[in-house]
């Protein structure tokens, strides 16, 4: 099939590359000439493991191309995906759909013959119907259908998620769109991937409901972690104990500094706004949003408390800035709240991230940018772990202790064990876990 993907951001580029790897002819379109020039030169504008190789292979095979000319790319397409940004709109928290609607108008003016127009961007309920109205208004004679195909890609494992998804959700209005989408995803039938066909509004809501639920699991386990710290329980074992219940599941039950990224913060906020407008307030999701905002500041306070109640005049080594590992994405990262809070409290901050330094420089100021994890520690009063990159999971602890002026580590991702750190001579602070003395005394949790 011939596919046009409008937008070469995270969703558009990954989806376009994967569709081309399925054997379809794909052209990815973007108005940003600099981005297209870079892609034509083989440069990938985002960090996603395996994406550079996937793009190169399919460009070489002639199945994947890049262009800034939407008018030329749409007429021959069987399917046109809209995968442009839908950032949070300033002032009211709604998703900004201006790019989506602009793309719809351009597609309407360019298409010839029957075209299936599919929203891949995350959009509020009712967007598909509005796209249909815009296209009919722009081109009353157009032969088309509108569908919704929300993405469920996790940054850092997006290619695997696309090629071996838990499910594919498609919102449609008629059998013609169903047949085309089945043909587009035909390779997944060999894997017996569930295909969930629904109405447009239902498909749009599935995306928001899924992200809101996962965000709620994160918020929930973070609150349980706070209780664990007060009563001497282990949040990791609590999470395992409840996660083994098939009704709950263990994913997204990892205590930490709060969620970030391109999806959860934006989508939970948009859902609460939509819910309020239709008169069905999403009070649980509203509480999750508030709790997550408070969580990031609370983690800054936790670091300060671990440093004796003050970081004024102290130097802190911070490992990890991106909102999660295996990405360079800084959107809504906890570090964007925690690091400035530490600076405001008087700390000098030395930082390192394996992939996020360039993006972080655009949003954080007055930091000491280091070239390695160990460089951050030289003479620092404490080490803080903000992102659980694999490179930080096996640090040379003897070297760390030698470099730090004090053997103090605050691990907000629980990537080390308290007993191990105590034996290595560190004053170790993690999230929602008892101290090493309790574990070494025979806490059964340590045996799980």
Kindly describe this structure.
It is built from 19 helices and 14 strands. It is an alpha/beta fold and 448 residues long. The protein has two domains: 2-198, 3-Layer(aba) Sandwich (Rossmann fold); 211-447, NAD(P)-binding Rossmann-like Domain (Rossmann fold, 3-Layer(aba) Sandwich), CATH 3.40.50. β12 (382-385), α17 (397-403) and β13 (408-411) form a beta-alpha-beta unit. α5 packs parallel to α6 (127-138) and α13 (283-306) packs across α14. The protein is globular, with a radius of gyration of 24 Å.
What is the element layout, followed by pairings?
Blueprint: E1 2-6, H1 10-21, E2 25-29, H2 33-40, H3 51-60, E3 64-67, H4 70-73, E4 79-82, H5 98-110, E5 115-119, H6 127-138, E6 144-148, H7 158-163, E7 168-171, H8 175-184, H9 186-189, E8 195-198, H10 200-231, H11 235-243, H12 264-277, H13 283-306, E9 315-319, H14 335-344, E10 348-352, H15 357-361, E11 368-369, H16 373-377, E12 382-385, H17 397-403, E13 408-411, H18 418-423, E14 427-429, H19 436-440
Parallel strand pairs: 1-2, 1-4, 2-3, 4-5, 5-6, 7-8, 9-10, 9-12, 10-11, 12-13, 13-14
């Amino acid at each position: 099939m011939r596919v046009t993907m409008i937008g070469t951001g995270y969703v558009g580029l990954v989806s376009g590359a994967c569709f081309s790897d399925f054997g379809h002819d794909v052209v990815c379109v973007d108005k940003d000439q600099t981005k297209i020039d870079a892609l034509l030169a083989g440069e990938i504008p985002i960090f996603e493991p395996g994406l550079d190789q996937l793009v190169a292979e399919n460009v070489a095979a002639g199945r994947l191309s890049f262009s800034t000319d939407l008018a030329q790319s749409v007429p021959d397409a069987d399917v046109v995906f809209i995968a442009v940004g839908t950032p949070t709109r300033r002032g009211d928290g709604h998703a900004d759909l201006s790019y989506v609607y602009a793309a719809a108008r351009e597609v309407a003016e360019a298409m010839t013959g029957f075209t299936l127009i599919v929203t891949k961007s995350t959009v509020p309920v009712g967007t598909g119907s509005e796209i249909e109205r815009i296209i009919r208004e722009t081109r009353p004679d157009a032969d088309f259908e509108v569908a919704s195909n929300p993405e469920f890609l996790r940054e850092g494992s997006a290619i695997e998620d696309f090629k071996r998804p838990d499910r594919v959700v498609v919102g449609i209005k008629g059998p013609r769109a169903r047949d085309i989408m089945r043909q587009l995803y035909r390779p997944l039938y060999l894997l017996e991937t569930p295909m969930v066909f629904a109405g447009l509004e239902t498909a749009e809501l599935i995306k928001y409901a899924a992200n809101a639920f996962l965000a709620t699991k994160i918020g929930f386990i973070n609150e349980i972690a706070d209780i664990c710290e007060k009563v001497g329980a282990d949040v990791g074992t609590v999470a395992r104990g409840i996660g083994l219940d098939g009704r709950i599941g263990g994913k997204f039950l990892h205590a930490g500094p709060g969620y970030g990224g391109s999806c959860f913060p934006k989508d939970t906020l948009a859902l609460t706004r939509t819910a309020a407008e239709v008169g069905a307030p999403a009070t649980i999701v509203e509480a999750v949003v508030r709790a997550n905002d408070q969580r990031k500041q609370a983690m800054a306070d936790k670091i300060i408390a671990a440093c004796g109640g003050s970081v004024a005049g102290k130097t802190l080594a911070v490992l990890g800035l991106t909102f999660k590992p295996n990405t360079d994405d800084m959107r809504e990262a906890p570090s964007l709240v925690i690091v400035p809070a530490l600076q405001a409290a008087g700390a000098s901050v030395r930082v390192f991230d394996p992939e996020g330094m360039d993006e972080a420089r655009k949003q954080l100021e007055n930091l000491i940018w280091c070239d390695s994890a160990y460089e951050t520690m030289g003479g620092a009063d404490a080490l803080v772990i903000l992102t659980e990159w694999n490179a930080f999971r096996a640090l040379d602890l003897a070297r760390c202790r030698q470099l730090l002026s004090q053997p103090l580590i605050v691990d907000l991702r629980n990537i080390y064990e308290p007993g191990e750190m105590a034996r290595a001579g560190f004053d170790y602070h993690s999230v929602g876990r008892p101290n090493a003395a309790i574990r070494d005394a025979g806490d059964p949790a340590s045996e799980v």
